[in-house]
């Protein structure tokens, strides 16, 4: 794993999430071409983040769980020239992802870079929209945290582990979030928890730990909505600067040059 040029330099991380690519390059959600919007976000990352130490891709990379879509995602993001880590979301199929990722480090669960440990957890449940950390995933987390030594930790999953204020999304979040939060509280080296799934920006600090969600690279969901509601906010990504002392800087950027044209009469999400 490449290390920062200087031992005290921050780790530059970019998160892309919920691309929902189809095997068909013309595939759309609500009239939005998901490959086109992903490319706009990638182009913006190129302009704004010239040096990336790690690219985190936190689920729903594909809408149809096709090998063709995963290969397209891999090819499109490869232009960022950064080591990448993937985890599955509820629209993904882990088996197909693993076939496409064979021979790479894309699905590596634990990555150490600089003074940080990045832990990627699979919260997807086959055939369901909600999330759950199975015993095997909790064991991965326990092992990673117990062996982290002095490294600061960033935990990533697909489903939201805390209430984000969208009533309709509460039942499709992480069902055993208490088991995750207990482990976070027991390990003070955990600095942040990061996820996708909710198609919107969210940030909250609890007991000194940052909890963060990131916009989709395609359609967005309206923050604070009681029922399913799409927002007309632009696609985006999150950047993070992970400092050697455990401090974390982060922000969300939108693809400002993207022309959003949604078709609410097209088949829904």
From TrEMBL:
It is an enzyme of class 3 (hydrolase). Its EC number is 3.1.4.53. Keywords: Hydrolase, Iron, Metal-binding. It holds the Pfam family Metallophos. Residues 12-200 form the Calcineurin-like phosphoesterase domain. Signal peptide: none annotated. Gene3D superfamilies: 3.60.21.10. One of its GO terms (molecular function) is 3',5'-cyclic-AMP phosphodiesterase activity. Belongs to the cyclic nucleotide phosphodiesterase class-III family. This is 3',5'-cyclic-AMP phosphodiesterase. The gene is cpdA.
């Amino acid at each position: 794993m490449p290390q920062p040029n200087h031992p005290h330099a921050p780790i530059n991380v970019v998160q892309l999430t919920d691309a929902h690519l189809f095997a068909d390059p013309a595939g759309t959600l609500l009239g939005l071409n998901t490959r086109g919007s992903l490319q706009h976000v990638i182009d913006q990352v190129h302009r704004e983040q010239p040096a990336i130490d790690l690219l985190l891709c936190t689920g729903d990379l594909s809408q149809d769980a096709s090998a063709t879509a995963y290969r397209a995602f891999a090819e499109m993001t490869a232009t960022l020239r950064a080591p990448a880590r993937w985890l599955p979301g509820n629209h993904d199929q882990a088996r197909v992802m693993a076939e496409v990722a064979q021979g790479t480090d894309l699905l590596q669960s634990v990555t150490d870079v600089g003074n940080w440990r990045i832990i990627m957890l699979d919260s997807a449940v086959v055939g369901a929209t909600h999330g759950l950390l199975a015993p095997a995933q909790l064991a991965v987390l326990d092992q990673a945290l117990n062996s982290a030594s002095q490294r600061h930790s960033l935990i990533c999953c697909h489903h939201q582990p805390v209430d984000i204020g969208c009533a309709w999304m509460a039942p499709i979040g992480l069902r055993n979030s208490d088991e995750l939060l207990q482990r976070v509280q027991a390990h003070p080296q955990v600095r942040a928890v990061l996820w996708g799934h909710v198609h919107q920006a969210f940030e909250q600090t609890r007991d000194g730990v940052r909890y963060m969600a990131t916009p989709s690279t395609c359609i967005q969901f309206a923050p604070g909505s009681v029922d399913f509601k799409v927002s007309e906010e632009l696609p985006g990504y999150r950047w993070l600067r992970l400092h050697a002392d455990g401090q974390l800087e982060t922000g969300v950027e939108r693809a400002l040059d993207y022309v959003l044209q949604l078709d609410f009469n097209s088949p829904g999400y």
